[in-house]
Design a protein that fits this description.
The protein is an alpha/beta fold. It is 32% helix and 23% strand. It is built from 13 helices and 21 strands. It has helices at residues 10-31, 33-41, 52-55, 63-68, 70-73, 101-117, 138-149, 161-171, 180-192, 221-229, 340-348, 381-395, 406-413; strands at residues 81-87, 95-100, 125-128, 152-155, 175-178, 204-208, 233-240, 245-249, 256-257, 263-268, 281-287, 298-304, 306-307, 319-320, 325-326, 331-333, 336-338, 355-362, 368-375, 400-404, 424-426. A nine-stranded mixed beta sheet has the order 4-3-5-6-7-8-9-14-13, with helices on both faces. Helix 8 (161-171) crosses helix 9. The longest helix has 22 residues, at 10-31. It is globular. The mean pLDDT is 94. It binds zinc ion.
């Protein structure tokens, strides 16, 4: 199932979005305290915003804005709200996203076309290995999307390899929805317990939250490690609560497809100017069809490349390359610019490292300093040198390595309220 608009040219997609724009602006101007004030403050006549170029004259919205003025973004009354989602805000306090009935329907549609994009069909049975509660959006969205697709779903939730394997035996699912690193744990468990995992019906995994690919679309170390053991098809998907939309890979595996009926997407540089196709830019989105908390030019903080050529799957929509990193997590180190995922990729590839986390702080010179805390049975200077050599080979620079207790690192990287491990600890002082 491919929505008709996704088969149309980029010009037609743009025209389609420009037809939707006036409704969105009128809605925000009427219902959103925040955007009404923003339009007034900047003397924006919304009737003059009738193209995607004109949209660029509206100031961007940041995560901090959502946090400080959460309630002013809400466009509906409590009676219209069905579901409440929260995200962890960058300033500490969470941001609440209210979803109306129509928002839930939009979310279901979004995941339906995303799962279809990742070659899902009514014949599939998805083993859902993400949490459906704890105020998260993702698990609920997957469930609704799979239902709309007409496929089967078994809600196992995260973790507990034993329960996952028991489910595989009983239900015989065909697909996983999971954080990819968990697949390695699952394989490890199977190997330790004599389970023949290759004999299952599983043929694909929709992988969330972690990078599966390098910038050139080859598999990352994590992706390769999974494939080496278990040759199933891996699909990356990139999504966030704020955009209530997913960019999911098709069978070509060359970036997540944009769904033009759901969001307007821009890619901006540091000065909020559009970047060219061969430049990395920050993903900035404007939601279409959202009732509860629609967003205009929202800066996601995620940096990636984008691609405009038509895809072999038939879709002509823009594709987003792997997320290189989060803007806030950019590290300037010894003359190079680094993002944590590049460090993880190297660490994932070194045998003997049981776990790790990356700390960045400001040194006495006022520049970034990186310490990688490594949990390993081997704490020798020889192993430390080996780790550093891996870094030098790939990044030309090596961070400080500090061996720590495996249990302690495990504790530090798994904060109680977090859905996924936190591998990056930013201790930098603000300049
Ligand atoms: Zn495609």
């Amino acid at each position: 199932m491919i929505p008709e608009i996704e088969l149309k040219s980029l010009e037609e997609q743009r025209a389609f979005q420009e037809r939707k724009l006036p409704d969105l602006l009128a809605y925000l101007s009427e219902k959103s305290v925040y955007y009404r004030e923003l339009f007034a403050e900047h003397n924006i006549d919304i009737k003059s915003i009738n193209s995607l170029e004109a949209l660029q004259s509206i100031p961007v919205t940041n995560k901090e804005d959502l946090q400080i003025r959460n309630q002013d973004f809400v466009c509906v009354t409590p009676r219209e709200i069905i579901d409440y989602i929260t995200t962890s805000g960058t300033l500490g306090d969470p941001v609440t996203f209210p979803l109306t009935d129509k928002d839930l329907e939009r979310l279901a549609y979004n995941e339906y076309i995303s799962f279809a994009c990742a070659q899902g069909s009514t014949d599939d049975i998805y083993q859902l290995m993400t949490t459906m509660d704890k105020r998260f959006m993702a698990g609920l969205a997957y469930f609704m999307g799979i239902r709309k697709l007409g496929a089967g779903v078994v809600r196992v939730g995260g973790g507990i390899p034993e329960l996952q394997w028991d489910t595989l035996k009983r239900i015989n699912p065909t697909a996983f929805v999971t954080v990819p690193s968990f697949l390695l744990k699952l394989i490890e468990y199977a190997e330790a317990n004599g389970i023949d995992y290759k004999a299952t019906q599983i043929n694909k995994a929709i992988c969330i939250g972690e990078s599966l690919r390098n910038e050139d679309f080859t598999l990352s170390t994590l992706g390769e490690k999974i494939k080496e053991k278990w040759d199933i098809k891996l699909y990356s998907t990139y999504a966030s609560t704020e955009m209530s939309t997913a960019f999911t890979e098709c069978e070509a595996g060359l970036g997540g497809h944009h769904h033009p009926e759901l969001v307007i997407v821009e890619f901006l540089d540091e000065q909020n100017q559009p970047v060219k196709e061969d430049e990395a830019g920050e993903v900035v989105i404007t939601t279409l069809g959202v009732e509860g908390m629609p967003l205009l030019r929202f800066k996601t903080g995620d940096i990636c490349y984008h691609y405009k050529d038509a895809c072999s799957c038939g879709r002509k929509t823009i594709r987003l390359g792997p997320i290189i990193g989060r803007k806030k997590q950019m590290i300037k180190y010894k003359g190079t610019t680094l993002y944590p995922p590049a460090l993880y990729d190297i660490l994932n590839d070194i045998n003997g490292i049981q776990n790790y986390l990356v700390e960045v702080f400001t040194n006495e010179l006022g520049t970034d300093e990186i310490v990688v805390k490594v949990g390993s049975k081997d704490n020798s200077p020889r192993f430390e040198k080996e780790i550093k050599d891996h870094f030098r080979a790939k990044l030309r620079v090596a961070p400080k390595i500090k061996f720590e207790d495996v249990g302690l690192i495990d504790k530090l990287k798994n904060p109680k309220l977090s859905r996924k491990p936190v591998l990056f600890h930013d201790l930098r002082t603000l300049a």
